[in-house]
Amino acid sequence: MKNILITGGAGYIGSHTAVALTKSGFEPIIIDNFSNSERSVLKGLKKILGRDVKLYEGDCNDRDLVGKIFSENQISGVIHFAASKAVGESTQIPLTYYANNIGSLLVILGVMQEHGVKNLVFSSSCTVYGQPDELPVLESTPRKEAESPYGNTKKICEDILHDYIKSKASARIISLRYFNPVGAHPSSEIGELPLGVPANLIPFVTQTAVGIREKLTVFGDDYDTKDGTCVRDYIHVLDLADAHVKSLEYLENQSDCFIDTFNVGTGQGNTILEVINTFEKVSERKLNYQIGPRRGGDIEKVWANTDKVNKVLGWSAQYNLEDSLRDSWNWQKRLSGIE
Ligand SMILES: NC(=O)c1ccc[n+]([C@@H]2O[C@H](COP(=O)([O-])OP(=O)(O)OC[C@H]3O[C@@H](n4cnc5c(N)ncnc54)[C@H](O)[C@@H]3O)[C@@H](O)[C@H]2O)c1
Predict the structure, then answer these.
(1) What would the pLDDT profile of 44-64 be if each residue is shown by its tens digit?
(2) pTM score
(3) Which residues line ligand 1 (CB under 6 A)?
(4) What are residue 270's phi and psi, to 5 degrees?
């Protein structure tokens, strides 16, 4: 079996990807420092997979530790999820974000090079597009100036990967630009586990529905969209996980000095109010929400053109918004001990 190192593998997307990889015959190995996840994730993975996933607890910026992982295991590819990801926080502690997100990529690339490991899938984000001039957004759509240090780290990391390949490096790289990941594993053994007040919409919605948060505020209903609220492309985390498996399989058949970028979304945009209505339908609960003023830095609307990823990787989203919200809701109920 091929060993795949998953950095940040105890996190939301990483843990679901560990499941998808195992189901496709890969052997995941996780490195995580638990800066934004909990050790209980490993128990959830064990319940789903029926066995333990190998874990190295530590930091991806620790070159000795990362080197040790490559020496102890024959690694055939890396998926680099580990990063700090809260947009708001990144404006307060930008140096921490630059150090963690860029530093860890440099360590991973350096150690991969040392050990002759070629295949890398990198977690990028639709945040690199800012507010695009054309919609749906294509991979070739010019990137805009980043709205936050977090967004800038993703742009810089993409640039580093391109410069690395331009240097004729013996590597094959895919950057996946995720749109808005939602949902949870249908077993409710793993899901999104935000520490503290959620920065993302869906955990805020589900936490409000169970009373952990009093009220959800929708930031602005005067945007140029069908109901005035912002539009995003919500992609089920199971679909997203599968895109990583497809990426690794694709990389195995490429020659050296390869790099490409793919949007990973459904190709559908939904407004915040549509999300709330769909959530109320699947959960059969009324959500306590209010409309507030716009929030600085929010993009009005963005959703993906997925033609390239559909065609080249043979991947397309299998789940819709209802499926995603149902799984998020079941996960929240499990966390809150309901039913
Ligand atoms: N969730 C989203 O909305 C979203 C959207 C676009 C892109 N992304 C990117 O996808 C990746 C995964 O996101 P996620 O939602 O699973 O986040 P997450 O915070 O749940 O997972 C990241 C994991 O990495 C770990 N980590 C962070 N820095 C580390 C380090 N230096 N060494 C070891 N472990 C470290 C954290 O403890 C956490 O378990 C990130 O790179 C993120 O920027 C996420």
Answers:
(1) 999 999 999 999 999 999 999
(2) 0.98
(3) 7-8, 10-14, 31-37, 59-61, 81-85, 100, 104, 123, 125, 178, 180-181, 200
(4) -130, 140
